[in-house]
Amino acid sequence: MSAYYTLLKREQHADGGCTAYYRSNIHAQGAWNPHEQHMAPATGILCAELEQFMPRDDMRIGRVSLDIFGLIAFGEFSITTRMIRPGKTIELIEAEMCAEGKTCIVARAWKMKTSDTRAIAGLEDLPVENPEYLPDWDGMRCWPGGYIQSIETRAHLDRRAGKGIVWLRNQLEMIKNQATSSFVRLMGMVDTANGVVPRLDPNEGWGFPNLDLQIHLHRLPQGEWLGLEVTQQYGEDGIGLTSGILHDTQGPFGRSEQILTLRQF
């Protein structure tokens, strides 16, 4: 099976951290610039490093916060993962992606101790219609780049500019010759939320790239399909916001936010 990335080597550090060296391929290519990676698979590879760093059976990742420092260069790059705040019930870990001598993305994840709270569980976000009942949708083809070509998309009929529900799936592994967990597979598509209900066609002379991606998870996702229930809003002073409720085929599992810089070409 094809993959977004190839692992070149891995180095362990004396302080417990590690650095992994990767190479991206055409499937990870971005939509804004042919010489950059798309933030979606870049999120996935960072989450793969965060997931496998000092794992504990009694903890899971509850939040991933990613800040984009600049262009995510295509080709070879490194990810250095370290412990920021160890603890018995909560831990903060960090993964820094660097390419061409520059920091591209810094991702921090809160890991939280799990317990049985089924007796008090309750959700306000509602399930949405599953993808098997929806038609294929080619609305993402307005975006260029290898990543967009790698995903299958289906949309609810009431989807419109600024608001709607789109389901995504891909058949690629995140890392060549390694099995991809549901967590990594679905996290590796969340950033696509910024392109599924754009208020403007990307060919109309405006750009709206995001500077961050915040993901909060009230449970771990399952399966291959990611449902994005998205609202996109533009302010009057050059700043916008893309907000999403995240679904898998079992129901909602979390939320995402992306702050946007609105720019006229």
Give a summary of the structure in a few sentences.
The protein is mainly beta and 265 residues long. It has helices at residues 39-52, 146-149, 182-187, 193-196, and strands at residues 3-12, 18-24, 59-68, 76-85, 90-99, 102-113, 151-155, 163-170, 173-175, 206-207, 212-217, 226-234, 239-248, 251-261, 263-264. The longest helix has 14 residues, at 39-52.
Q: Which range best describes the helical content: under 10%, 10-25%, 25-40%, 40-55%, 55-70% or over 70%?
A: 10-25%
Number of domains: 1
Spatial order of the strands forming the largest sheet: 7-8-12-13-14-11-3-6-5-4-2-1-9
Shape: globular
Biggest β-sheet strands, sense, barrel: 13 strands, mixed
CATH topology: Porin
Number of E strands: 15
CATH superfamily name?
Acyl-CoA thioesterase, double hotdog domain
Protein name: Thioesterase-like superfamily protein
Pfam families: 4HBT_3 (PF13622), 4HBT_3C (PF20789)
InterPro entries: ACOT8-like_C (IPR049450), Acyl-CoA_hotdog (IPR042171), HotDog_dom_sf (IPR029069), TesB_ACOT8-like_N (IPR049449)
Report what the structure shows:
- It is a single chain.
- This protein has 265 residues and is mainly beta.
- Helices cover 11% and strands 43% of the residues.
- The chain has a single domain (3-113, 129-264), classed as Acyl-CoA thioesterase, double hotdog domain (Porin, Beta Barrel).
Distinctive features:
globular, two-stranded antiparallel sheet, 13-stranded mixed sheet, Porin, 265 residues, mainly beta
Topology:
Blueprint: E1 3-12, E2 18-24, H1 39-52, E3 59-68, E4 76-85, E5 90-99, E6 102-113, H2 146-149, E7 151-155, E8 163-170, E9 173-175, H3 182-187, H4 193-196, E10 206-207, E11 212-217, E12 226-234, E13 239-248, E14 251-261, E15 263-264
Domain Acyl-CoA thioesterase-like C-terminal: 133-260
InterPro entries: ACOT8-like_C (IPR049450), Acyl-CoA_hotdog (IPR042171), HotDog_dom_sf (IPR029069), TesB_ACOT8-like_N (IPR049449)
Domain Acyl-CoA thioesterase-like N-terminal HotDog: 30-111
